[in-house]
Amino acid sequence: MYERSLPASPNWYCSRCSDVNSDGLMGVGAKNIVYLIDVSGSSCRVEGELVGHRDLVSGFSFCQHAGQSHLCVSSSNDGKICYWDSNSKSLLREHAAHQSPVSAVHWSPVDKNLVVSGDEKGVVICYWFHTGDTSSFFPEPRTIFCLSCSPHTWNIVAVGYKDGMIVLIDVSKKGIVMQRLRGHDDEIHSLAWSPLHGEDALYSRPEDSEATNGESAGEEKGCYLASGSKDQTLRIWSTLKSKGVMTLKLPYLKKRGSAVDPGVKERLWLNVHWPKGRPTQLVSSCFSGELVLWDLTRSGKQRWTLLGTSSEGQNHSRIVFNMSSVHLQDNRQLLISTSMDRDIKCWDLDSLDCCWTLPTLGGFVYTLTFSPVGTGCLALGVGDSMIRVWNTLTTQNQYDTRAFWQGIKSKVTALAWHPKKEGSLSFGTDDGKVGIYEVYSNKPPQISSSYHRKTVYTLAWGPPVPPMSFGADRGKSTYSLYSCAGEGIILQHDPLKLGGEASDIDKLIRNTNNIKHKLSPHTDLSWKPDGKVVAIGNEDGCIDVYEAPSLKLLCSIQQHHKIINTLQWHHDHSSPPELHCLLASGSSNAIVYVHDLRSIIENPPESPVVVTEPYRRLCGHTDKVTDMAWSPHHEARLVTASYDGTAQVWDVLQEEALSNYRGHNGYLLSVDWSPVDPDLIWTGGKDFTAQEWRVSKQTFTKPPKGKKMSKLKEKMKANPKQKRKNKKTSGAGEMNGGPVAEGEKAVTGAEQSGEDEEDEGSSRSSPVPPAASFEMQRKLSAVPKTKEKPDTNLLKKKKPRSMLPISTSMDHRPKEELLQDCITLASVQHDQAPPAGCVPGQGEHIHLGLFSDRPALHRMFQSEEEGHVEAGHFDSVVYLRLWSGDLEGALQLATERGELNDHLLSIAPMAGFEAWSRAVEAFIKQLCLQEQYLKAASHLLSINKVYEAVDLLRSNKLYREAIALVKARLPADDPTLKELYTCWAAVLEKDGHFSSAAKCYLAAGASFDAAKVIARKNDVSSLKTAASLAKISGEVALAQSLALRCAKDLAAAQNWVGAQDVLSSHETLLVHQLHFSVTELLSAMLEDAGVIPQPCTSGHAWSSPDEGHTSIQDRVRDVWETQFGVSQTSAGRHGAGTLLQELKSVESPTLGANVPLRQVLLYSSLHLTHSVLSWLLDDDEQLIKGLWQAVAWLRDAGHFCVSAELCRRLFPDDDVTVYSRKRPKTLHLSEEGGRAAADSLQAFVHYHRLYDRWWSNSAHDQKVHNGHSLPATDFRAGDEPEDKVVNGESSESGKSVHSPTGSLDDLGFDASLLLSESHAACQATQRSVREIQEQLAAMVQQHSRAQGGQLESGETQADTQTSSAAESSDGHGSTDAEKRPDDHQTLLSLSLKMSELQKELADLPDTLKAFPHPDVLECCLVLLHFSESSPPVSESLRRDARDLLRKHGSGPSVLRASQRFLT
Hints:
Layout: E1 4-6, E2 18-20, E3 25-30, E4 33-38, E5 45-51, E6 57-62, E7 71-76, E8 81-85, E9 90-95, E10 102-107, E11 114-119, E12 124-128, E13 133-137, E14 144-149, E15 156-161, E16 166-170, E17 176-181, E18 188-193, H1 206-215, E19 224-229, E20 233-238, E21 243-249, E22 272-273, E23 281-285, E24 291-295, E25 304-306, E26 320-327, E27 333-339, E28 343-348, E29 353-359, E30 365-370, E31 377-382, E32 387-391, E33 400-404, E34 412-417, E35 424-429, E36 434-438, E37 446-447, E38 456-462, E39 480-485, E40 490-493, E41 503-504, H2 505-513, E42 522-527, E43 533-538, E44 543-547, E45 552-557, E46 564-569, E47 582-587, E48 592-596, H3 598-602, E49 609-611, E50 616-618, E51 625-630, E52 637-642, E53 647-651, E54 656-661, E55 668-673, E56 680-685, E57 690-694, H4 709-717, H5 771-779, H6 792-796, H7 805-810, H8 815-829, H9 854-871, H10 874-883, H11 887-897, H12 902-907, H13 913-929, H14 933-942, H15 946-955, H16 959-969, H17 975-990, H18 994-1003, H19 1007-1015, H20 1020-1032, H21 1036-1052, H22 1056-1064, H23 1070-1089, ...
Parallel strand pairs: 45-49
Antiparallel strand pairs: 1-57, 2-3, 3-4, 4-5, 6-7, 7-8, 8-9, 10-11, 11-12, 12-13, 14-15, 15-16, 16-17, 18-19, 19-20, 20-21, 22-23, 23-24, 24-25, 26-27, 27-28, 28-29, 30-31, 31-32, 32-33, 34-35, 35-36, 36-37, 38-39, 39-40, 40-41, 42-43, 43-44, 44-45, 46-47, 47-48, 48-50, 51-52, 52-53, 53-54, ...
Helix pairs in contact: 9-10, 10-11, 11-13, 13-14, 14-15, 15-16, 16-17, 17-18, 18-19, 19-20, 20-21, 21-22, 22-23, 23-24, 23-26, 25-26, 26-27, 27-28, 27-29, 32-35, 37-38
């Protein structure tokens, strides 16, 4: 279908990805396609493709049998094996027996039906073509790299593995391993069998021959096998002896500008090929693309010969992956090689010269364009970061192509030849770069300093416009370069000053046309050939036509409604004037419009015209149009390229489709018409190919109808089998870049299809390939992605890189040239006329600089430096400068490159102190960038910058090293040390390393901070340590505070011994020792009584309960006197007055909710301690108040039984005035407050006795539990708990709390104290206040609900107004409410009543409120219950109880309970 084609690049890192059959047809796997190339002629020709794989082609092999040479097989990374007919280019059959990527395939040279393949998991599969049967073997659990069927025995297959193992298997015996050949220690890249059966050919020594003859006397003849490995060796194996008989180490060939480091194993792929009919000759690849012919009968340097030495540029410039040979009918034997440099080369094995070279492409062909000056010169912009310039008219070499890669480093997406200047080619890239190449020179490109932010869409040469057009008569360029990119702007570059700033033409458009609104992003532009007008396409589908040079808007074409992809003006040579103003446009809506703008251009309107109707409409494409070109040979003939995968030729005037080209696989991106042949068109697309085809030879005239071709192909690719976890990239051994701006423009949205393409910016002239690209290419190949450990043996044997590689390589030329060098050198030394142009140390005589004078040596050094710079070996440049005496220059270069090292620094003093100091400072900066701060600090010390070294370490948080340095080098009193300790301590404290932070604070002299930071852990051990540290450091107040915190934690854990130990170390904490001793005694007493649980405690012996009934205050006095030396006679710090004063400073918190009982006991014992100290001072008033507080804490916290037990232990005789009998003490209270406290305390003692009597009566107890007459919360004043009786009983677990036995005839105490009139009135007022507060709260809640719309219909205020104080749990609340006419009250009335009650409370005596009695009404009800069961309760007492109930019992619960007593 096409005339010539540049195919896609062959896949990399495959052991057998190309092969040639006996007819001279070569098949090579590129991406997921196999290209067929005829190599039998004087030049090659691409014959077609085998399309069917959905993943990377990993192997290819022809059937080499007569009559079947048209059959071939290919494998891919998706595990599929395909069989083809190369004549019809059709798929015959396929199988997917492999479950992993296939790494090798071979059609047996012996059995015409046997095909053997191996995959990455180590599985070998045999397929018989004639029957379709398969058999699977698993000889070794290793990754297969290559395999080769024996050309002499059908059942023997050699398999090479990744780890260097080679095995011979017998496929006729279930794949049994016949031999294991060990010797290589790295990947086996290739295997080749000797074409001669037997092992006689290689033996030239008699002893070897005799040994061989002796062994081969039997039936088995054996055969040689050659292997190439990544370990840089070739080995010849004897299958008869099962061992290696020859090892060939690759020669280190060093060419100018490409010094190769053989230690870098990623730069080697060692392919071997044993040509047919040459049993003693072997061809192998080498380090940098050279091909070596080995004569196996020779030894030493005579053993190998380099191919392509007759002229420069014949060899590959990058590593070679595959070789295959063919015998032609004219008895020539050709060798075909594929390489990383993307060239396919053909070699004559007789002359060892290159016959022809076929360039290939490694990326999308984004753009192609013919030079308007250099006839037939075609430039291609490719996604492999290279530009190809193809001289299409050369007759001797049909593929005369040069590649340009310097300065590009990204996909080439736009090209434009200068309209007048020959060889000047502008380019734009995917990363927004714009530059100009002079293709007929070897100079690097000029790069514009103005970068686009996104992909460059279009480049165009046109007349300059302001501001660049100003001063055009003063030597300015007559053409400007315009670039349009993905961000939507067009920049104008001055080609003579690309380093200057480019101008955005939008500014000129706005100013000229007075535009205020935002301009639509531009996507394409095209200058009319005469330079008078320019058409600019926009993202919204609009096309604006401007008049130069002011860029006045002439018209706006609003025809397309999608992004404009391409614009082209009709040419103006050899065509009627009426066609000169035709503008063709293509967009993403698949229709091509042609507009005739002649009238507008020749007669410009005053105001812009809007064009909405096209001159011609070209319909037929089924997807977006990406590029177009007018025929330079015809009138109004146009070719367009589209995403539908076709190129279409149109007769524009007739709106007729003339020819449709469908030779590409995938969408098209570029098209151009041949400037020489009117029948030839060139197209490029996503299939990595550029194709030349004839219009007249196409069978189709219109694009395919129905569904879009590209969509169909994409659906074919969406095979579920592809979606494996180990799916590999489908770019043929390529490094794939990310997509350009998606969907912005067809030409750069190509990557959306999911096809891969690479960004590898290398070419055939690349001196040293980037190391990273080799590794990435390897990873994308058919081998698994595994980390490889370097071979330590090879690293030890690594030969150092030569300092003079260029001059050294000159000594490896042919013998004749080396002899001529001697003549030339003699002529120079003896002042005879040397050859013309001979300058030792320069050019072709660079190596003679070593044998001539010093200036010649310096010239040689200069050339070697240039070579090292080009190769990136700047360390060698430094050494050369050092050798030439320019040490300062060497240091300067190393400084600029950031490649200073210790060796250079050690010799820097030779250049003087100043140079050494500068070098050290530069090295310090370099080390800081490399994060080697310790080394940088050490070098700062070498130039006596101690403080700077300390700052460097501190700024990088190396505090330990900084402190060590300061202490070693600076005075002891230097403030820097304290700052370092403080900073480090802050960091450690923040990270939670409190002990380390404390050490820093101590070293900095901040003992207070050290103790505080240790205490932050807040556990007992940390607090104890912090207290000790503070005490040692003299921080007395802090030590006491921390010790007290520690003691409280120990006390909370019931570790009384530990708490006392901590406090005993601080004399000033004696009062806290006394407090904790009281708490310990109180806890032990309550535990013994069974009212609180008994935990596992650590207590003192003196806290054990005594046998007698000694009061708790007497026990406290005893312990204080014996253990702490505190008595009435003690003085000083042990004096009661001093201790009491210290105790007053101890915080006594207010009672809160949910305080644990142990904490309540701690606070209660504090008041008990206060009372005992007041006893020692004979202060009865404070004594009784302290006792009252101790009991009140327990009572108010809701611990009824604990409070009752404390009262019994304080007052065994139930008389609060008798404080002690052991030490006779009777209270004499003169102040009102003391008497009120004593009365309140006595009332509570009687209250507890009253309930003791209540619980001792079983009948009454049962009655209470049945709930007939139990008083409710309204009985009590203050904060009494509701479940007092029940709590008491449940705490007692059914037993009496030391209640005196006896009848109820005599209560045993004066019950009249419980029926206090004043306290009853106070409690009634308090109850009324609570009731009103509850009613107010209910009203507020009801109002809030009503505002939120939560009240339902039918609800009334009376229904929702409830009071917990007014209703009881037995359901009689409604009846009580009916009896109370004041239930329905307003907010105002309730507020008034509240004010009155609060005033009444304020008028009551303070002692009445400060020292309350038990609930009087509750006591009245209990006494009246007693009177029913036990008449001896006095009548006066019963009468007083009834009177109090009638007077103050207004609550509904009280009324119900007292109803039977009052009627």
